[in-house]
User: Fold this.
Amino acid sequence: MLLHEYLLIFGRSFLFALATLLPFLNPPAVAPIFWTLTEGASGATRLALAKRVALNVGVMLTIAMVAGNVLLSFFGLSLAIVRVGGGVLVIASAWRLVNSPDAGAERAARMAESFTPEMAKARAFYPLTFPISCGPGSIAAAITVGASLREEDHLISLVKLAGSLPGILVTSLTLYVCLRFAAQFLYKLGENGTTVFMRLSAFVMLCLGVQIVWDGAHELLLSVLVEAMNHIPVPRAP
Assistant:
């Protein structure tokens, strides 16, 4: 193959990874949820958390893309099971956000006193990274991207991998920018606008969680139905 053909494969892999992963992460919708869950944290703490969450998301997507199918096979798990379990986590987190009380000055002051660096470290992965920023839908998308890397020609597989990794990097950087500048964006909305936007984002995340659970349950039910049909004896013609 010529050099420009490899460059074309590289570019297609980059765009495919970016177009597949970015809509699932949906960084603009994650920003108000991140702001709400870090209520009371200082600007420096939020900046450090934004960096940590973006880094965690990049690592998770890379692992899911490169070794997702191998890990699922090792633990004897199907992608449908991952969707159901992860979707339940998304629903639980979104439900708490939808029903959370509105923030007031007194509550914000109490949160500022209690939001310690230890609390920030504890929340960096769960729930800020998983399932808020990188849920089962994003992981399933990364595994899908990883499946597209397999080619009989190992050199082409490496070129596709080299193109997909920058796609993950751009996705993580986009998430970081949205989390980093969430305050400036939400400030323009005002307190009431921020509350409404946060609850709408939480509701959308709740619906996504239900959709993810349904997709997994639907796949499991179909597999059970197919297995049951295979065990039904076929009557012989007289």
Q: What stands out?
A: The radius of gyration is 21 Å. The chain has one domain: 1-231. Residues 1-231 form one domain.
